[in-house]
Write a structure and sequence with these properties.
heterodimer, A: alpha/beta, seven-stranded antiparallel beta sheet, seven-stranded mixed beta sheet, B: alpha+beta, 2 domains, 13 helices, 15 strands, 36% helix, globular
């Protein structure tokens, strides 16, 4: 707890859309090797505060990629950092995606909004290992699409279903919630699933996939709670019997399904 | 280890030995209308001749009519105030020419001797330490303070008004290896303590006091006193039935009873502040006006506040119903999943210090009763 954070510098920044920025972070001082596996998160801080941000990729270690949406003072300060500016990082923390299970493939990836960020390194790792993938990606508006160029590239290599809550006539994806294409697209019953997005989307998507015959033991989801110390000592991120920062953020649906139906736990 | 008799008038010698051995002695002292734990320089600092009366939402001190030093039961605040200070600085940072510089905080080393720790609170300290030990990054600062502390336990020769340690197996007899265990005796002889050492450190302190030997009469009197406490605990409420408790709470997470309790609960966080095991904390960054210096503080927090479960979009637990349920179910059920046992030691502080006298054992009993009634109705 007493351990001081490590200094990082913004090596590159790219605005995904207004208010949401992807940062490539380089350690300022040589730091010990750490396991930045897909699905884990780090605490990123500036003098405006510290927030948990999922790892969006390791471009070339030790450079880390994080996508930040400005929703409060601390995240706005991160999203506004310029190239060369310093911030601090604690972590990585938590349990990430079970790549070894998912690599048995095929894998369905379901993302909602910023939920694509923690799924990106998983998607890249699975694709590199030849896993048959399909992506369902829902967003509020077409302009709020993360990693647009990459998504176009993915769509050329494996099925990508895009859905926007509201869209212009030029939109080629579906309009509405992402669970609609998820209910209709062909999905092999032996597929593993990784979900990240609003809790209601994950709950409905998981339920729908189980109804379609998928194994709830191979559906994984990444939870959001108030991660504060990130080491399981402050108690803020508790969800039922779990500390999300330590036991999660990635959980197996079969273990947590009843808790997703309870409000305010 | 060794046992002896410490005459009441030599309690000061014991306190003096503890200070001489380099410990900061903390024990029960009267502050205003209540007993708290604070520094004890001599026996005159102890609440001689006072007993505490505790009920749901009520606490007062009254004369005991005898000269006991430890006639009272648990003090208002638990020992965690010393092992897990409610505010401490973790590190500092400075920003100079766009660069960040971090300064590690070094902590002044204090070795505490806790004088008058009750059986339940020893378990509370053990359970709190187990939380600190868990996970990939243990709270070493807390564990260091615990490891260097000396425990002088006192047996409860009187039951408090709101406690129920016997139901949780945490008392009234001191069953954990405290360094020293004292039983205060007035019967069958002069005012004295049966003193027993259970560790090397405790044995050394006793050796320096060169105590007289304890006789069968003393041991029998001590055993009788603790047995009497145990009888009282068995005969009056609060009582907590442990059987199937975790499963009961998991079945009843949507019970309307939570709404009824929320109608009384003020969400004031008192219960979490006085609980010996409640560990929730916050990290807070404080910057200077220039934005050049920052301090990171660790401070006590409570699951009863709105900010506690804040994620973007609002708190996860917006209602008092959800916050009370979180507190009680965490204590008696989630804790078992997290750490292998409940997070309650039956000290009763949360009942006493609840401004409206909510009694967690009553909430559990009501949940049990309603479930039994409902299943009875279904069978008919």
């Amino acid at each position: 707890m007493r351990e001081v954070p490590r200094r990082y510098r913004v090596a590159a920044r790219r605005e995904e859309f207004p208010g949401t920025t992807t940062l490539d972070l380089q350690p300022v001082e040589p730091s010990p090797a750490a396991d930045f596996a897909p699905g884990r998160f780090a605490m990123l801080g500036t003098f405006a505060g510290e927030v948990p941000i999922s790892l969006a990729g390791v471009e070339s270690y030790p450079t880390l990629r994080h996508t930040v949406r400005a929703v409060g003072g601390a995240s706005a300060a991160l999203a506004e950092l310029g190239e060369g500016e310093e911030l601090w990082l604690r972590g990585p923390f938590g349990r990430g995606w079970p790549v070894d299970d998912l690599v048995r493939g095929p894998v369905v990836i379901v993302a909602g909004g910023l939920g694509l960020a923690p799924l990106r390194p998983l998607l890249l790792a699975l694709e590199a290992r030849g896993v048959a993938l399909s992506l369902f990606y829902g967003m509020r508006r077409p302009e709020e699409m993360l990693y647009r160029q990459e998504v176009v590239g993915w769509a050329a290599r494996f099925p990508v279903h895009l859905s926007a809550d509201r869209a212009d006539p030029g939109w080629s994806g579906t309009v509405g919630v992402i669970t609609r294409p998820l209910a209709q697209a062909p999905i092999p019953a032996e597929a593993g699933v990784a979900l990240c997005g609003p809790e209601v989307m994950m709950r409905l998507a998981a339920r729908l996939l189980v109804e379609r015959g998928l194994d709830p033991g191979r559906i994984y989801l990444s939870m959001e709670r108030n991660m504060h110390c990130a080491t399981g000592h402050c108690g803020h991120c508790q969800w039922g019997p779990w500390f999300v920062c330590r036991d999660g953020p990635v959980f197996r649906y079969a273990e947590v399904a009843p808790w997703l139906d309870l409000r305010e736990v | 280890m060794s046992t002896g008799i410490l005459p009441a008038e030599r309690l000061d010698a014991l306190i003096g030995e503890l200070w001489a051995a380099g410990y900061t002695v903390i024990g029960p002292v009267r502050e205003g209308g209540a007993l708290l734990y604070d520094e004890v320089r001599g026996s005159e600092d102890l609440p001689v001749g006072l007993v505490d009366r505790q009920e749901g939402g009520r606490y007062f001190l009254e004369p005991s009519g005898d000269g006991r030093f430890f006639g009272h039961t648990v003090a208002a605040t638990p020992w965690k105030r010393f092992l897990d200070p409610p505010r401490r600085r973790l590190w500092r940072a400075e920003r100079r020419n766009g660069q960040l510089h971090f300064l590690v905080e070094t902590e002044e080393e204090v070795r505490f001797a806790f004088l008058g720790v009750r059986a339940c609170d020893l378990h509370g300290i053990r359970i709190r330490s187990a939380v600190a030990e868990a996970g990939p990054e243990p709270d070493e600062a807390l564990l260091d303070r615990r490891r260097s502390a000396l425990m002088v336990a006192v047996q409860c020769t009187r039951a408090g008004g709101t406690c129920f340690c016997a139901d949780l197996g945490t008392g009234p007899a001191v069953d954990l290896p405290a360094d020293l265990v004292l039983t205060e005796l007035l019967e069958d002889g002069p005012h004295r303590f049966l003193a027993e050492s259970r560790t090397e450190a405790g044995a050394k302190i006793l050796q320096r006091l060169s105590l007289g030997p304890a006789g069968e009469v003393d041991r029998a009197a001590a055993a009788r006193a603790v047995a009497a406490t145990r009888r009282t605990l068995a005969e009056r409420s609060p009582r907590l039935e442990r059987e199937g408790l975790r499963e009961l709470l998991y079945r009843q997470l949507e019970s309307p009873l939570w709404d009824e309790v929320a109608g009384r609960c003020l969400s004031c966080a008192n219960c979490t502040l006085v609980c010996p095991t409640c560990f929730c904390s916050a990290v807070e960054d404080v910057t200077d006006l220039e934005g050049a210096r920052l301090e990171r503080w660790h401070r006590a927090d409570s699951c009863f506040t709105a900010e506690f479960s804040q994620i973007h979009g609002g708190p996860v637990r917006a209602s008092t119903r959800a916050r009370y349920r979180q507190w009680l179910v965490h204590k008696l059920a989630y804790w078992s999943d997290q750490f292998g046992e409940p997070g309650c030691v039956g000290c009763g502080r949360c009942i006493t210090w609840c401004p409206v006298g909510i009694d967690l054992t009553e909430v559990v009993r009501d949940l049990r009763r309603r479930e039994a009634e409902e299943s009875g109705e279904r069978e008919r």
